[in-house]
Amino acid sequence: MNLHPAYRSTRGGAASVSFEDALLEGLAPDGGLFVPEAIPALPSSWRSAGSFPEMALAVLDRWIGHEVPRDVLAPLLADALSFPVPLVPLRGGGWDGVYVLELFHGPTLSFKDFGARTMARLMGHFLAGRQETVTILVATSGDTGSAVADGFAGQGNIRVVLLYPAGQVSPTQELQLIVARPGVQALAVRGTFDDCQRMVKEAFVHEAAARLRLSSANSINVGRLLPQMLYYVWAVHQGGFERVHFCVPSGNLGNLTGGVLAALGGLPVGRFIAAHNANDFFPRVLAGGAETYRASVRTLSNAMDVGVPSNYERLRALLPVEELRRRIWGTSVRDEETLAAIRRVRAETGYLADPHTAVGLEAARRYREATGDVTPVVVLSTAHPAKFPEVLREALGVEPEVPEQLARLRGAATSVRSIEAGTEHLLEHLPADAAARA
Ligand SMILES: *Cc1c(COP(=O)(O)O)cnc(C)c1O
């Protein structure tokens, strides 16, 4: 059992670093992703923990306890992970033995809240020690932007500038992005998501921005990865399972990688089911295909519209491809099948699934049908159905009830600036005092 791993690059061309450096740097200097050099075993206390944050503390203490003292980590996790994580058994139809783990009860109603909130507080802790200020730049078209903005808002040494393509996100998503938050500037870019991403990338290497300490908070940061192990452990704890399969609606494969880390640490996982939409790179590889990337296509489950899943490189660094194929079963669900799954699950069990969760439920159903395997399956529910009223209206003719987190936003103060596409326009909006203090 190795406690407190260092982090190496997936590309092998850089020295190993501490968790603190991996967190603050995001990407290794050779362009690779940071992976732990060893996987700490789960502490035996995970089965007896009294609450989610208590279990999270026991698990993460083994990963980062030498860098973040327990008396800092305990309140940090209690604050970051302060929302419920219910495990809901489905009943009816052929669904007995299928459970939904609802990861959408955080402030921005998607599973991204776990990673973003924990990462923000860990960064805040390390930066306070260094007396540094950083500016986080994020280009977003979906859940990441609002989770990051909400997670980092009010963290003393951190500013967030988030860019999104004007007119190309849903009204609900836009409201979640532009609600006024301390330390957060939203920029509506008159361009596409690709323009936003290019502006962020160029700002990182621009000389005018060199005096700013810029950082990123995308899904490849280890600070988002480690918290994404925790709810897998909590699901097994709640269900009391001897052995269980996990079905994960996937895009960049960060969520799934969190589960693989938990399994390598000793969580009794049988198989993972990788549930993808029409963007099917990973299911093709798992079925024995070549590692050929295709451009992403737009689907109803838009947070999973990823042509090149960035965490695939990390999964391959953790396990050889044959081992990935043995442990993970993959499938690709098209939009009409997603709508049919929303209807089928609603009719057979009464459960209301958002389009991402519906991809997962359909994948779990296919797995059980294809294999006859009756091991319990936990399907991760990655977003609240109220984030996608348009899709649910199309599938069922009804709109989901609006949860309190969204209702609160209606009528709240908003703050957004509209800018042209182009890196020079972004540079004008980076906080000047951050530059002075860095
Ligand atoms: C980000 C996201 C996903 C995909 O997660 P990855 O870690 O990128 O695989 C799935 N569902 C929702 C709702 C998301 O926001």
Question: How would you explain this protein's 3D organization?
Answer:
The chain is of the alpha/beta class and about 450 residues long. The chain has a domain at about 85-110 and about 225-395: Rossmann fold, CATH 3.40.50. It is about 40% helix and about 15% strand. The chain has 19 helices and 13 strands. The chain has helices at about 20-25, 50-65, 70-80, 110-130, 145-150, 170-180, 195-205, 220-225, 225-240, 255-265, 280-285, 310-320, 320-325, 335-350, 355-370, 390-395, 405, 425, 430-435, and strands spanning about 5-10, 35, 85-90, 100, 135-140, 160-165, 185-190, 215, 245-250, 270-275, 330, 375-380, 415-420. Strands 3-4-12-9-10-11 form a 6-stranded mixed sheet, with helices on both faces. It has a 5-stranded parallel sheet with strand order 8-5-6-7-13, with helices on both faces. A two-stranded antiparallel sheet has the order 1-2. Helix 4 packs parallel to helix 5, helix 5 packs parallel to helix 6 and helix 14 (about 335-350) crosses helix 16. The chain is globular, with a radius of gyration of 21 Å. The structure holds pyridoxal-5'-phosphate. Pyridoxal-5'-phosphate (PLP) binds next to helix 10.
Quick overview:
Helix content is 42%, strand content 15%.
Q: What is the secondary structure topology, with strand pairs?
A:
Blueprint: E1 7-9, H1 19-25, E2 34-36, H2 52-64, H3 70-80, E3 87-89, E4 98-102, H4 112-130, E5 134-139, H5 143-152, E6 158-165, H6 171-178, E7 184-190, H7 193-205, E8 214-215, H8 222-225, H9 227-239, E9 244-249, H10 254-264, E10 269-276, H11 281-286, H12 312-318, H13 321-327, E11 328-332, H14 335-349, H15 355-371, E12 377-381, H16 389-396, H17 404-407, E13 416-420, H18 423-427, H19 432-437
Parallel strand pairs: 4-12, 5-6, 5-8, 6-7, 7-13, 9-10, 9-12, 10-11
Antiparallel strand pairs: 1-2, 3-4
Pyridoxal-5'-phosphate (PLP) binds at residues 110, 112, 142-143, 219, 249-255, 303-304, 356, 382-383.
